[in-house]
Request: fold
Amino acid sequence: MLSPLDIENKKFVNSTVGGYKKLDVDKFKELILADYEKLYRENISFKDKINALTNALDHYKAMEDTMQSTLLVAQAASDEVRETANEKAKIIVEEANAKAEEIIRAANRELEKTNEKFEQIKREYILFKSKMKAEYEAQVKLLSEE
Reply:
């Protein structure tokens, strides 16, 4: 791309026959130079802006990548915590169920012992009652014989 200085320093060969007037060429060159200089500066400014925006975009893409990887790590950690909590809860429930079953078995054993004692006392009562009845009847018979 030509710089404004290249345009300003451009020399034209003078021709005697059919050539351009030097004054017209110089005026036109000045017009072109002014416009070209403006466009050249704008182009440099736009390139600088593009570079700055590209750098900013790269920075934001890097931030996005960091955020995405952070999010993935957080999600993995969350999943791990949830899984650990579920495993612990399952163990707690299993232990509670096992303890409840042991308590029920102990209560059933105690109930069996109590029922056995009750039946033993009941048998002793029946035996005692029948002995007392027999003793009573024997005493009544003895009294009636006298």
Observations:
- The chain is about 90% helix and 0% strand.
- The first helix runs from residue 4 to 9.
